[in-house]
Every structure is written in C-alpha cells, then in structure tokens.
Amino acid sequence: MKILKFGGKSLANGKAIGTVVDIIDDNIKRGEKIAVVLSARGNTTNELEEILEKASKNEDYKEQFAAFKRYQLEDFKGINFDKEYETLDKLFEGVSLLGDYSKRIKDQVLSHGEVISAKLLTQLLQEKNIKAHFTDSRTLIKTDGEFGNAQPLDKLSKENVIKHFERYNGATVNVITGFIASNTKDETTTLGRNGSNYTASLLANYLEAEELQNFTHVDGIYTANPDLVPEAKKIEKLSFKEANELAYFGTNILHAKTIIPLIEKNIPLRILNTFNQNDNGTLITSETSEKGIKSLSVLEDVALINLEGRGLLGKVGVDARIFRALAHKNISVSIISQGSSERGIGFIVQADKANEAKSILELEFEADFYQQDVSTIAIENEVSVISIIGQDLSTFHKPYNALIKNQVIPLLFNNTVSGKSVSLVVRKIQLHKALNVIHGEIFEISKKINIAIFGHGLVGGTLIDQILQTAEEIEKRKKIKLNIFAVANSRKVLLHKNGIDLNWKAELEKEGNVYMVNDVIKFANKCHLENLIAIDNTASKEFTRNYLGLVENGFDLVSSNKIANTLSFDFYKELRTTLENNQKHYLYETNVGAGLPLIDTIKLLHLSGENITRIKGVFSGSLSYLFNTFSSEGRLFSEVLHEAINKGFTEPDPREDLCGNDVGRKLLILARELDLSNEFEDINIDNLIPENLREGEVVSFLERIRELDLVYQKVKETQEPDHVLRYIGDLWGDLSQEKGNLDVKLVSVPRSSALGQVKGSDSIFEIYTESYGDQPIVIQGAGAGAAVTARGVFGDILRLAEKGNH
Ligand SMILES: NC(=O)C1=CN([C@@H]2O[C@H](COP(=O)(O)OP(=O)(O)OC[C@H]3O[C@@H](n4cnc5c(N)ncnc54)[C@H](OP(=O)(O)O)[C@@H]3O)[C@@H](O)[C@H]2O)C=CC1
Ligand SMILES: N[C@@H](CC=O)C(=O)O
What we know:
40% of the residues lie in helices and 21% in strands.
C-alpha cells in the first residue's frame, strides 16, 4: 500500500483538484493499492482562522464566511455541505456572542477544512466510478487531548487504523482527513503545525506502507528556496537524517515529527509535484549518500537578542537564568552563541516574542543592571537565520570568506558538533544576497559574477562582444556565469538584472537612462547582486572619482583606464587602503603593454625579493607603430599617424600619446609597482607635439597634423646611418630609494639593436634585475589594439572570478 498525501495548493479550485483526481485514477489503473490523506483546500485553514478571529472581536465576519462557502462549491454542483456550514455558523455565532474562543473551539472550527476537502474529493472520485470512501480521521487517530497540538495515542490509533483498513480492504480508496483527530471523549483535536503530513506518516507507519508520496506544488526539496536563489537545484535523494536537519531549520515541506514514524518503519518518503508528474521528485530514505548533501534553509520572522555586560565574566549560571526565565514564559531559544570572554550572549527567538523576552530578561537581570554587571539587553529585529546543512567547519571558510567579500557580515554564527550544519544570523536586508553568495560557493554550480561596464568604445565594446560570445563556453568550462548587468557611456546607462544580450547597443540607445554611478550601485543592491565587478574602459579622469565609492559598496575594480594609478600618490595609497579595508581587489594588467603579462611579472619579481634595477623599452603601441613604420618606409609622418589612429592604437585623444603623457603614465605605474612614490610631475617627458599645436580641440589638431611632417622628416634625416627612431620610457637610478628617475624620450638607435628591431605596433620591455645582471628579462608583443586590450581586461575579470575571492 502507498499513502498519497495532497497539500492545500493541490486541492485548490480550478485545474488543481482535477489533477489530483487524475493522479488517483492513474494509480488505480496501474493496480496500485493506495490510501489518500488530504489537507484543507487552498487557503481554507487561514480563512477559517481569520473568520474565527473576526467573530471573537465582534467584527462582521459574515461576508467573509459567505465568500468561504462560495469558494468551496464554486466549481462543483451536486454536493452539499449544509451540515458543515450549519455547525460552523453556530460555532461562529457562539464565539461572536462570547467575544472569545478556546483552543477546543478553534480545533472544531478548523477541522471543517479537512472534512470539506475529503468529502469533496470522495464525491469527485465516485463520479469517476472509483470506489472511494470518505474517512474521518477523528474515528481513527486518538490523542492525548491537547487542543491545538495533540499527541497521538499510538497503540489505540494503530488498532483503529488497522481495523478500518481490514474493513475497507484496498479495493476501496480511503480518502482520509489529515490534521484532525479526537481525544478519548471523542472531542475534536488537531495535530498542530504540519498536521496533515503527520497524519499521513502515522498512517504509513501503522499500515507499514511501502511508500509515502507527499504531493506538493514544488518538484521536491531544493538546495535552497528557488524563489530566493534562482540557481537552486533539486535534490534527487537524501537520507532521513539529512531531511531531519532540513526540517528543523525551516524547510516547510518537512517537519521533524512527521519523519520519525517513517524512520521507525523504514518507509521511503517521496516529495512530488502535483503539477509536474514527469518529475520523480525527491526521495528520502534511510540511506545516506557518501558525499553528503548540502542545502540552505532559512528561518525568518526571528529576532536576535543580545545580552552584554563586563560583570558576566566568570559568573556561574547566567545562561541557565536566561533559559529558565524564557522557558517559564514558553519562549524558545533556537540559536545561541556566547563569546569565550562570557561578556556577550546572543540568541534567537521568534520575532513576535522578542519584546516579551526582553522584558522578562530585564526583570531577571534587574539586580545585575543595578550592579553594572549587565549593561545591555537589546533586540535586533529584521534578522534571518541561514543554515548550511551538510557543512562542517573544515570548509566553512569558503562560504564565510565569500560573504565577507560581498560585504555580508554575519551578526552571529554557530555549528553543531556531531551533525554537519552551520547557522549564520544575517540582517534580513542582506538575506537574498547572502543566500546566493553561499549557494554559489558551496555547490558545484556556476558562480555568478555581476559586471558593470563603464565605457563601451573601442576597448569596452570589444570586451562586451568577447564576453557575450564566450560566456556560455566559460560557464561550461569554469562554472563561472558572467552577467553584464550594466553598460554605460558618459551619458546613459542600460541596466538589466539578468544580463544584457547581443542587442545591447540599440537598447542602450533607445532605453538607456541618464545616470550617476550611484544609480548603478543602488540597482545592484536592490537586485541583491553578488560578486560585483566594475570595469572602467573610459579614458576619463572624472570617472576615477567613483572608484572609492564603488569599492566601499562591494565592487572589485578592473580598468584599462590608466588615470587612477597616476593621480597623486596620496590618492594611489587611499585607493589601496580602501580596497584593503573592504577586502576588494583592483586589477589593471592592460595599463601597461595592453594584453602583455607585464604588470603581473613585475609584481611577482618584486614580491619575490628580486631587485629590479631598471625598466626600459618602447612602452607605447601607437608610437611604436608610428616610428617603426615612419623609420623604415618613405611615407609622411602624418599619414602613418592617421593609420595608427584608425587601427585603434592611440588614446581617444591621440595627443595623449604624442605628448608623452601615455608613456609617462605607464612608466609611473611600473615605478609605483616597485613601491616608488614618484608623482607624475617627476617624469621628464619629451613632448613630441610642437608647442603651437598643443592647445585646442582634437579635431582642429587633426586638421593640422601635416604640420608635423616637416619636423619629423628633419629629425629622421639628421640621424646617424642605419639608425631608427624609437620613443622610449626609462626607469632608472637607485630604485631602492623613495623615488626613481623616469624619462620619456625620443631616441635614435642602431637598426640592429633590440629596440631597433621592434616591428609593427609591438611594445618591448627590458627588465633588468640584480640576479639577471646585464641580460634583461624581455617581454615583447602587441602593445596596443582594442582586441588584445579587451582580452587583457577579460583576463583580469576571470582572475577575479577564479581567485576564490568571489
Ligand atoms: N587602445 C588601446 O590599445 C588601449 C587602450 N587602453 C585604455 O582603454 C581605455 C578606453 O580606450 P578606448 O576604448 O579607445 O576609448 P573610446 O574613446 O573608444 O571609448 C571610451 C568610452 O568611455 C566612455 N566614457 C567617457 N567618459 C565617461 C564617463 N565619465 N563615464 C562613463 N563613460 C565614459 C565613452 O562614452 P561617450 O561615447 O559617451 O563619450 C566611451 O564609451 C582608455 O583609458 C585607454 O587608455 C589601454 C590599453 C590599450
Ligand atoms: N595608446 C596606447 C594604448 C595602450 O595603452 C598605446 O599606444 O600604447
């Protein structure tokens, strides 16, 4: 025999209840022996409770009662609940007259929900020629008589059930009311929270059923609530022990007491979805999987009480007094944590009991307050408890670090010693984000990285294309889901919680909004987005003013923009301190040498104690192209410059390259990597732009660039034979001092030298160190271009995503 239990949502009007009839019909056609246990339909129990409450307050309840009656028969003709309605009428009238009701009356009222539900389904089955028999569980399950939360008298109930099923021996489908029972005086009692599930598992136990199937409106038990964690996955199988932990921590399909009768007889429990019969649901058995399961469950509607005082140190019996005082008023403590200094004790109670608990403790510790042993008893409302089931402390650092990186600082945490679970108390406002962060960290599913891209010109636009083209592959290979939730230029932003698509450019133009960077931060917070990265692909100084705010609001930074690293040394340090304080990272590999792995190499050499004595080379891709081509071909300087601009090698304003600022910035960035505290003003720069062309708009400069031809033709011609022009950066001097020497200049070198042989838009960096002596480490390759730069930025994003720092 199988027990099929259907919850309220499965029995609601419309398609639902018809589906239940079909499920039962299918089982019978397959020759299954079944018994059916039902909850009240839809929202019936809550409705009855509300009507009762209104009646007790002498409010007009009749309208709601009429609506209740209409709902029950809305879709069904030819069935009559006059008897039930009459009883309910009398009960409500009595309560209204008395202005109060007892738990006994409440049980009588609520019992009608299950009775109506079971009677209706019995009739619907009979109309389908199924032999169905309405079974009022009050005639079977006998209890100790505690109204509202009765305990079954097992021996008596079991005898009743077995006798009943001997009479209705399997050819008949017993349709049994869940939740309700009766005491030995035949008065109605109810089985408390999750009562219908309890009835079903009691029946399964008494009848030694082969399986209990619990039909709900979800596919089974998930790794987390899918409404809060879109990436949550269904758990196919779990053990009773694991289910028990989940039940305790608020997974509302299960309740500890409903599992015990099943464990006793080793009866499997299957959680199924009435509305998705193709799914096998979650099977709960006594077998424990080797790997163990992990799941997140949440307790809401709780409050944190914090009791503190210097005088608590070493005092005996403080905890006992807290528990005793609260227990006296029936207030349960669910999670408690105490510092080893014993100066502070934090614990969780139900939210609606928090004020009462505080008053009780204030009374209990009145004398301690007076003696200044206790200083604070405070309530922190708006908190939630997240429990990571299946988590032990050996790997707890992973979700914990991820939370901290995402600026979720738990208020309190504790673990169970034998069972594997860790619970954290977090602010309610951070619950959503916290769940997603932990979930992404503990499951082998994709970790979502939420990216805001500022600047979508040559580099930014190419980066977006690269991400969109490869995101799927990266998710498959690396389990990293890249979600671009914001794209912005200097005027507008396009925000999409679930990520932009290939149509982003048109959408930004059409639907983008004027914005401040703060709007992007607010959007990320509102949508509870985790693992945030802001990418600066602008060339704007103004934009770098947003860096500190972004970091303080939980963003890591990646920039191709070099400005932030070359502002004052004070800002440089402030940014690093802010990053450290917020445990955030800033990567900028493309700042020097575009896609070449230069900064990382220098960082590593410096970190490992290698003494770098000089860095010299062609730092600019555009100027490399310009002088390589101009030196070897008989073409005009202006013509080659135009080509470099068109190939996307130059800065948005090409004068930034020609005036030497861009190379100067790169040199300064490398110097600062070596802990030198140089300022931009310390750099000696050969400006390649004649003074009369330095001011004004870019357009007017470009209109006049032919004026450069004569100047550089002369420079070219006055070189020694077999020499070529190169624009170089040179960091030299005693680099163990506070500051180094930084030179940016145009030089003429033999064509056969290392610098002289550089081709195309290649950059070359010679890194001289103490160990390597006169033989420098050389890094050479494309030093500019949108594709290589975007690829470098992409690399930084993946490095952040993979660092475990998300
Ligand atoms: N090209 C290369 O080889 C390399 C470039 N880089 C760096 O890459 C960066 C981008 O260069 P590139 O793509 O050529 O530049 P583009 O001029 O092509 O694009 C710049 C983008 O930034 C946007 N922008 C400008 N100011 C702001 C602001 N205040 N807020 C938000 N968005 C803004 C622009 O929007 P709008 O159109 O509205 O102005 C535009 O979308 C530069 O810092 C450059 O130094 C680094 C290494 C190599
Ligand atoms: N304009 C720059 C681009 C890379 O930083 C260059 O030419 O090197």
